[in-house]
Amino acid sequence: MSSTGWPNNLTFVDDFDSRIQYSAGWQVVTGGAEVEGTKHGADKAGMTATFSFSGTFVSVVGSLGSVDVYGIPTMTYAIDGSLVDTYTAPVLAPGTFRLNQTFFNSPTLDPGSHTLDPGSHTLVITNVNGTSPNVVWLDYILFAESTPSAPSSTTTIVSSSSASLQTSASAPVQGPHKSNVGAIVGGIVGGVAGLALLAAVQRTGANRDSDSTPPDPPAGPDSELVWRDGAEYGPWKRAAVVETTRLRLSTL
């Protein structure tokens, strides 16, 4: 008997389950102490029980009686046509009976296709001790069902840094950026023109002081701009006020 241990999540199959197919001649006992109160017995060599399942592990559990009454049962276990194990019951004292005896534990089976449908297996239990009245008492079978493999999937992961880089490289230049450049250039040009106007005003004031000649009134858009927007430029407003005051005095 294999000594692999039982995995978790086993499925219980009683000896009366239709998934177990018995050859002719098996004894049927009801009302006993076994699980569900039933058991099947084989007392002739060559009698078989066949169990088809889809899984990775299978175990066979039965009952044993004393040898002076039932003899020494011997069974073979084949999976998918290959002999896996042979079990011979131990000798029990007269009048002794044992329940829940593990006759067979399979090695862990690879999931997949075997002799039946994909993922299926066939377990054949055969009584090989032909000395009557040897009896193989089958109580129940346990098996671990196959777990379908999860479908593979491909996941594309884009890092936040890559996404940011791609966005920055492909983003078009927006209108407000162009407007800011124009404002900067305009400010530079205006500043240069203002400096030129200040120099002209200073020269005019110097000449007027030396000649005592009344100045000409400020003219052109620059003079009006200086007066109108003087609050923005500070010194330019004061120069315009001086020029306007002198102009008014000269006309009196």
Automatic annotation (TrEMBL):
Keywords: Membrane, Transmembrane, Transmembrane helix. The keyword Transmembrane applies. The chain crosses the membrane at residues 181-201. Residues 206-228 are annotated as: Disordered. It comes from the Eukaryota. This is Uncharacterized protein. It comes from Ganoderma sinense ZZ0214-1.
